[in-house]
Amino acid sequence: MTEHTLSEAEYDAITDAAAHWCMRLHAVDCTDAERQAFKQWHDADPLHAFEYEAMLEIWDVADHLPRVKAAAVTPASRPRSRWSRLAVAAAVFVVGLPVAAYTGWNLNWIANSYERFEAGTSVRHITLGDGSQVELNLGSELTFANYKNERRVTLEKGEAFFDVSHDKQHPFVVRAAQGQVRVTGTRFNVWMYQDQVRITLVEGSVRVTSNQALTRNGLQLSPGMQASYKAGDHHPQVRETAPNDSSLAWRNGKLVLDDLALSDALPLINRYLERPVMLADNSTGGLRVCGVYNISEVQNLVASLPKVLPVYLTQNKDGNPVLNSIGQRPAQ
Predict the structure, then answer these.
(1) What per-residue string of b and e applies to 218-242 under the rule 16 or more CB within 10 Å gives b?
(2) Does residue 159 surpass a pLDDT of 60?
(3) How far is CA 159 from the centre of its chain?
(4) How big is the chain by its Cα radius of gyration, in Å?
(5) How far is 278 from 282, CA to CA, in rounded Å?
(6) Is the dihedral of CA 304, 305, 309, 312 positive or negative?
(7) Residue 182 near residue 171 (C-beta atoms within 8 A)
(8) What predicted TM-score, i.e. pTM, was given to this entire model?
(9) Which tens digit of pLDDT belongs to each residue from 235-280?
(10) How far is it, in rounded angstroms, from Cα 112 to Cα 298?
């Protein structure tokens, strides 16, 4: 099996997805569209296939597991192996094992609902199972799972604006790249590109934690603050946002580049592109760009950059566009 260097949260998300697909494919109302979606998920990563096969093995023997009393399983006796966790996960979906389902739910291992959402070429408005409202930006994907102790969202790619239903006893957690945002009820935006994440708080409060943090207390944000982190950061970076901050312009279909260095602008641009634009060198990355663009026409923005900046476009061996400064043009 291919070696994966994933966080515990990422492994949990894959296991949850494997349990979901195992349940759906065994359901009598499973649709052809769901089977096609499963195939895409299954083939996307060898680890997906591995976890699903492991889940199937446990599913096949779950019907033969003996019934146990609920009192026989306590948090102190929680199995620590991944296989034991999979066994409980599979048992949740097997008819005739209500005790296993009850146990998995009470130990916060198993969600009682799991949803997956995608936005294609337009912004999508969705309502999660807990009533929270979400706006998904173009090309964004997320999952929602409802556990006993928390509501858990995994932002797999892109950007989302959350208006979270208040529930102090049931926190709402958004996992994005190598960190998470924890709230009880608030309005905030999460932008992610590769291993970079930026959280902008509009209302309420959130606690932002990097998976690399030396402590788990995290960083508390109040309205008008923005936190960011990326792989390897021990602490999120924080700054105050201006009243006219452009981070939420995408909700109006716009990408605002407010006198940004190309090195800072390209992650915002590349988030919308199939082939990200690269920089030839640091000096090119230091050139500054500004303007307001339609998020549905970002590809046209890339083509127009040589008209507004002293740059020209080439292509690398992988087919990515590369921005070069005029001063670095090789002699003819």
Answers:
(1) bbebeeebbbbbbeebebbeeeebe
(2) yes
(3) 8
(4) 23
(5) 11
(6) negative
(7) yes
(8) 0.70
(9) 788 999 876 778 899 999 999 998 999 999 999 999 999 899 999 9
(10) 39
49 CB neighbour count, 10 Å cutoff: 15
**What span, in angstroms and rounded, lies between the C-alpha atoms of 105 and 162?**
25
Torsion sign over Cα 190, 191, 197, 200? negative
> Exposed, middle or buried, 196 (CB in 10 Å: 0-12/13-18/19+)?
middle
Report percent pLDDT > 90 for the chain.
Answer: 45
Interacting residues of 288 by C-beta distance below 8 A, sequence separation 6+: 259, 260, 261, 262
Tokens, residue 326: 């005029």
pLDDT of residue 53: 79
| Residue 311 CB coordination number (10 Å) | 22
The set of long-range contacts for 201-208, using a CB threshold of 8 Å and a minimum separation of 24, is 201/225, 201/226, 202/248, 204/164, 206/181, 206/182, 207/181, 207/182, 207/183, 208/179, 208/180, 208/181, 208/182, 208/236
In tens, the pLDDT along 65-98 reads 444 443 333 333 333 344 444 455 555 555 444 5
Distance CA 188, CA 134 (A): 10
Counts of helices then strands in the chain (DSSP H, E) = 8, 18
In three-state secondary structure terms, 315 is strand
Transcribe 110-174 into DSSP letters: S-SEEEEEE--SS-EEEE-TTS-EEEEPTT-EEEEEE-SS-EEEEEEEEEEEEEPPP-TTS-EEE
